[in-house]
Design goal:
This protein is an alpha/beta fold. The protein is built from 13 helices and 12 strands. An 8-stranded parallel beta barrel has the order 1-2-3-4-7-8-9-12, surrounded by 6 helices. Strands 5-6 form a two-stranded antiparallel sheet. Bound molecules: flavin mononucleotide.
Length: 367
């Protein structure tokens, strides 16, 4: 038997550690943001085929998310309540400096048998920066800082006598002890502008991008992987999606229609105004949210665009299409997290595994 040529696609879910769920809509949601709800959700997820959970960092309310729990502390609580799940804690350079972040995450790595990872986010919410008195940098400067942040994290985690002379951070002969346990914490990043992609192609383990069609994902993947290869680096890709899996396609579409119909237009417009500070503010004018319609923005990270809305069979086929476009991981948001994570794990993931198996057999037969 020949070796498998592709890894099974991985699944992650968004931790609802901020209130209001993952859509800017007044639709009824049975998603909680408190720790009891989230502990149970994490246990359901790890028992149902999810390998990762991603926490969010927000410092103020904006368009929804009236309450926000801090990402690192919350991630640790979820790790303490689970046994196999890996939890990715969001870190925002600025409020975090790499010395503290490296130390915090190394300790959590020891406490959890190496199950903690990080998502370095670069900031788009100018009002939030103003509220907490953080300096607002131009788009590409934010990425220059994030790249130094990541280089510093990695250096501190893997080297003794680490010395780094950056424009944002400086380390002198620094030996942090203890280092994280193996495996080293994986470093994810979010953003899809030119600067974000180039950073991924140089330093990140994972590139997270907003929801999109397989064709658009393929373009990003080809771009990043070509650049990464030229740098002698390799990077994996995670794609966001908002999943609505129901027995029939009509039921699933009806849920989407209701989410959009009950969207709060002022809040969505307010969000649209703030996200102009993301990709649109980059020199090339591209990146996350640069082409989003108002309907897309009802889901914070363009999750409807990935179109995982329909029956389990339809969704499984579309996940395979995203995988064929280069996605290594699908990051999922849901309306009613606990029950839908379980449904997804029981009814969609097994179909994905069957399709992966069939494709493998077809590929082997063609060899
Ligand atoms: C999966 C994912 C998770 C993100 N999580 C956060 C977060 O928790 N907090 C935050 O302020 N920004 C978050 N972001 C925003 C990004 O860090 C970035 O600022 C935004 O996507 C704009 O990037 P771009 O201009 O490079 O396209 C996230 C982005 C993605 C794709």
């Amino acid at each position: 038997m020949s070796l498998k040529t592709t890894e099974p696609v991985k699944f992650a879910y968004w931790v609802p550690n901020v209130s209001g769920g993952l859509v800017i809509s007044n639709i009824e949601q049975r998603t909680g943001w408190d720790i009891d709800y989230n502990r149970k959700l994490a246990q359901i997820a790890e028992a149902n085929g999810f390998e990762y959970a991603l926490s969010q960092i927000r410092f103020t309310a904006g368009y929804g998310a009236e309450n926000q729990h801090e990402s690192v502390a919350f991630s640790h609580a979820l790790l303490a309540a689970t046994t196999t799940l890996k939890v990715i804690a969001a870190l925002l350079p600025g409020p975090w400096n790499p010395a503290l972040a490296a130390k915090q995450i190394a300790t959590i790595s020891h406490l959890t048998n190496g199950r903690v990872a990080v998502n370095v986010v670069s900031g788009w919410f100018r009002g939030e920066f103003a509220a907490i008195g953080e300096l607002w940098l131009d788009h590409d400067e934010r990425y220059r800082r994030s790249e130094e942040f990541i280089r510093a994290l990695r250096g501190i985690w893997t080297e003794d006598n680490f010395t780094f002379k950056g424009d944002f951070y400086r380390f002198n002969d620094y030996s942090m002890k203890p280092k994280p346990v193996d495996p080293q914490p994986e470093i994810f990043q979010g953003g899809s502008s030119r600067a974000a992609r180039d950073m991924a192609a140089r330093v990140s383990d994972w590139y997270f991008t907003n929801g999109n069609t397989p064709e658009e994902i393929r373009k990003q993947v080809d771009d990043i992987r070509t650049k990464a290869a030229a740098n002698g680096h390799s990077v994996k890709v995670g794609v966001n999606a908002f999943a609505i899996a129901r027995e029939t396609e009509e039921e699933a579409r009806a849920v989407l229609d209701e989410i959009v119909a009950k969207a709060n237009p002022e809040a969505v417009q307010g969000f649209a105004d703030q996200v102009k500070n993301a990709g649109k503010a980059s020199p090339e004018g591209e990146g996350n949210w640069a082409k989003s319609s108002l309907e897309d923005l009802v889901q914070y990270n363009d999750g409807f665009r990935s179109n995982l809305i329909g029956t389990p069979v339809q969704i499984a086929e579309r996940i395979i299409a995203l995988k064929q476009a280069g996605a290594d991981l699908i990051l999922l948001g849901f309306l009613h997290f606990q029950e839908e994570v379980e449904f997804f794990g029981k009814h969609v993931i097994p179909l994905v595994r069957e399709l992966e198996e069939q494709k493998q057999i077809t590929a082997e037969a063609a060899e």
